[in-house]
Amino acid sequence: MKKKRFRTIDPFLQVENADKILDEVFQIAGEQKMNPFLLWGLCLGFVRDGGYIKGDNDLDIGVVCNGKRERQALAAILRKNGFTHGTPNRLHNIHFRKNKVLVDIYFLEAEGFYSSFDSVKYKGKIYSVPRPIEDFLTASYSNWKIKEKQTAKVRVVNQGQFWKIRSKKFNKLNWANDISYIKMFVRSGEFKESDIVLDVGTGTGIMAHAISSVVKKVIGIDVSQDMLDQCEEGDGNQYIKRDIRDSKFPDNVFDKVTARLVFHHIIDDTQKAMDECYRVLKNGGKIILAEGVPPTSKVRREYISIFKLKEERLTFTEEGLVNLMMKSGFKNIRVLQHITKNFSVNNWLENSGLMKEKQDKIFELHVKASDTFKKAYNMRITKDDCFIDIKNLVLVGEKREV
Ligand SMILES: C[S@@+](CC[C@H](N)C(=O)[O-])C[C@H]1O[C@@H](n2cnc3c(N)ncnc32)[C@H](O)[C@@H]1O
Predict the structure, then answer these.
(1) CB of 185 closer than 6 A to ligand 1?
(2) Which ligand 1 atom is nearest residue 163's CA?
C-alpha cells in the first residue's frame, strides 16, 4: 500500500493558522513550566522582519527541559491536543504537525543562550527569545540583519579577500602542522613512488609538501594566489592558481587526488568539484579527503553557530561526505578518523585573520558552551586558553570503472 504523505504548508503562506498553532504550543509548554521560546528561523523572522520568513517551512520552538520524563510528558499532551508525532525517537528535537503546520520542538537545557530570555512583540503579544538575542542571531546566522542571500559571484570575491587575510598567518596554525594528522593522512593514501598526485585546495602547500617525499610528482592547485604565495619554494612541486570546479586537466591523469579541509569551503557546486576529482583520476586511482566534523550529532547546532561567526562554510557529516563521493562514482569508500588532541582555541583564533572582536566572541562561545558541547570536545579551560579535541574524518575512495 502506498504510504500516505502528510503535506504541510509554510507558516508564511498561512499566517493565521500558524499563529494559532504557535500560541497553542506556547500555552501547553507554558502550563508544563517549560519556558517556551522562539528559535532559529522563527526567532529571526519575528525579531528582524516582524513575522514569518518566506520559505521557512516550520515553527522552531525551544523548551527548557530537564530530561526524558518532561520530554515525554509534553509529547503526550501535544498528541492529546491533536498534534501528530512525526519522529518519536529523536532526543534533541521532535517534529509535530497540526492543521498542515510543521512544528519542530527543541528540548534544551537552561544554559548559555537559554539560561534567561529576551522578548519580542508580535501582533501585540510577547514571545520569549534566547538572550542576548543579538548575540544569538549573530552566532547562528552571522550577517543576520541582511535579508538577501549572497550570490555565488559575490562569494568568490569575498572568499578571495578572506584567504588574502588568512594567508599571512596560515602556516602558524597548530592544527595545519599537526604531525600526527599529516602522517595519518599520508598513511591513508597508500602512496607509491610512481604516483602523480593532485592536491586540491593546496593552500600554503603543507600537505603537498609532506606527500612529495613519497611520490613522483605533486601538483597543487588553489583558488587563492595569496595562499599559494606562502608555499615553500624549491620542493619540486608545481603550484597553480586554479579552481577545482574548472580544473582544466584532461581525464584520467592522476593516480591520487588529495584534499584536506577544502570541501567545506566549496559552497556552490560542491558536487561538481567532486565530479572533477573523479574525472581527472585514472581508473583505479584514489581520492583522499579530510574534513572536520562535529564530534557528536548532539552538538551539531552549537558547532554550526560557532563556525557561522567565523566564516561561511558547509558542515558535513560522515554520511554526507560518503554520499558526496558516491554520487560522483567513488567506490570502496573507507572512513578513518583522526583526533587532533589539545587543539588550542587561542592559536586557531589568533592565526585566523579574524578581527579581534570576532576572535573574542568565538572564544567566549567556547567557554560558555553547553556542558554537552564541552564534554563532547573534552574541553579544558586554562587561565588564558581553551583546549579541545577535534574530530577529523579521512575518507578514501576509489575510481573503479568496469
Ligand atoms: C583550510 S585551507 C587548507 C589548505 C591545505 N589543504 C591544508 O590542509 O593545509 C583551504 C584551501 O582551499 C582553497 N579552496 C577553496 N575553494 C577552492 C576551490 N574551489 N578550488 C581550489 N581551492 C579552493 C582555499 O583557497 C584554501 O587555500
Answers:
(1) no
(2) 25
Q: What is the pLDDT of residues 168-213, one digit of tens each?
A: 999 999 999 999 999 999 999 999 999 999 999 999 999 999 999 9
What spacing in Å lies between the alpha carbon of 256 and ligand 1's midpoint?
17
Class (C level, CATH) for 152-398: alpha beta
Who wins on pLDDT, 380 or 400? 380
The answer to whether the CB of 243 is under 6 A from ligand 1 is: yes
Domain ranges of the chain: 11-141, 152-398
Distance between CA atoms of 304 and 24, rounded to whole angstroms? 30
Considering the entire predicted model, what is its pTM? 0.67
Ligand 1 pocket, 257 CB below 6 A?
no
Whether the CB of 135 sits within 6 Å of ligand 1: no
Write the CATH number of the domain with boundaries 11-141: 3.30.460.40
Assess whether pLDDT exceeds 80 at residue 400.
yes
Residue nearest to ligand 1 atom 27, measured at CA: 203
The predicted-structure confidence for 302-358, as pLDDT tens digits, reads as follows: 898 888 888 888 888 898 899 899 999 999 999 999 999 999 999 999 999 888 888
